[in-house]
Amino acid sequence: MRKLDHVDKQILQILQEDGRRPYTEIAHQLGLSEGTIRSRITRLLQDGVFQFVIHPDPEKLGLHVQAIIGLTTKLGSQNSVAEELSKFPEVRFVGAFSGKHDLIIQACFHNNDELITFVNERLSQIEGIAAADVSLELKQYKDSFSFVRDDEVPIQ
Amino acid sequence: MRKLDHVDKQILQILQEDGRRPYTEIAHQLGLSEGTIRSRITRLLQDGVFQFVIHPDPEKLGLHVQAIIGLTTKLGSQNSVAEELSKFPEVRFVGAFSGKHDLIIQACFHNNDELITFVNERLSQIEGIAAADVSLELKQYKDSFSFVRDDEVPIQ
DNA sequence: AACGATTTTTTCGAATTTCGTAAAAAACTG
DNA sequence: CAGTTTTTTACGAAATTCGAAAAAATCGTT
Q1: In the structure, what pLDDT confidence band is assigned to residue B152 with cuts at 50, 70 and 90?
Q2: What region holds the HTH asnC-type domain (chains A, B) (predicted)?
Q3: Are B100 and B72 in a shared domain?
Q4: What number of other Cβ atoms are within 10 A of residue B153's Cβ?
């Protein structure tokens, strides 16, 4: 996989703001031809650098309750627990971490009942979870995939 | 804002998988006309139900270090701290929470140095942060905005 | 059930975008 | 610097999107 250059990052930055901006417009904006933008985007997709998706507003979908849950797993079951958790549609993020919790997940629910049911019935049925530390989201300030920056990648 | 119906959710589910699928194809897939898909998507966008974005792979962008940081703020400064943090491009998530930490953020860095600099120099300069509890991501299992489900919204 | 009003869906030609591909240009290599 | 590879451009054909009007469906009222 070739290293991303300035043009690639500019394309990503534009698509970050509007994932459906036409190649022709991006081309015009960057002073390149449509074909160039197209071939670059095709390559970026092929290299798995990004995907076209949508960002729904959970509130508008009726998912009024969001939570971050820190999990402590029994030694040796971290991986299987993480994979099990990843299958749930209400779980949007699962990661293994160093620090207080072995796993940290983020999940969305319609209401508190659904969250309680998830913790008490779903989580308890997964073998290997020792403890769950639930933090309820009170207000969301920022939530995005917008981490494309055009600054220099540090020399390793 | 009208309530989302089954067709809206189906459209969102399709776009979740491929944010660039043409209206014509969605229409064909759902047995509706292109115009219907177009007007529904236009309305959903106008109502702020979702946005077209891209999901970059942080690793492919050279962002090899991700962290979740739980913050304790001084009484009264939670909001200003959150807003300040939201301005950082490396910070992709900021939320106020009940539980152990007042704020929880998620951020991406090129390397450990960048993370250390962020914690020691950026965070320390923000007025109102009492403590920061850093968890380093060791492995990512799931990360998506795919929380559109087509099950029943519970009766409140 | 019938009515008008409103909203949603369909239709269709025009404008725009995307696609396939070949040629040109540029960049890289030894 | 000639040869090779990669990238960009160009352009006609195919597909998609767009604008707007007609048709259909939905809704509230009687």
Answers
A1: low
A2: 4-64
A3: yes
A4: 14
Q: Is the pLDDT of residue A128 over 80?
A: yes
Instruction: Identify the CATH number of the domain in which residue A83 sits.
Output: 3.30.70.920
Among the partner-chain residues B19, B82, B97, the one whose CB lies closest to the CB of A53 is B19
Range of the domain at A93: 58-136
Residue B148 lies in a domain: no
**Residue nearest D20 (alpha carbon to C1'):** B35
pLDDT of residue B146: 87
| pTM value > 0.90 | yes
Question: Are B121 and B70 within one domain?
Answer: yes
Q: Which of A33-42, B42-51, B114-123, B140-149 shows the lowest mean pLDDT across its residues?
A: B140-149
Protein-covered nucleotides of chain C (CB closer than 7 Å) are: 8-12, 16-22
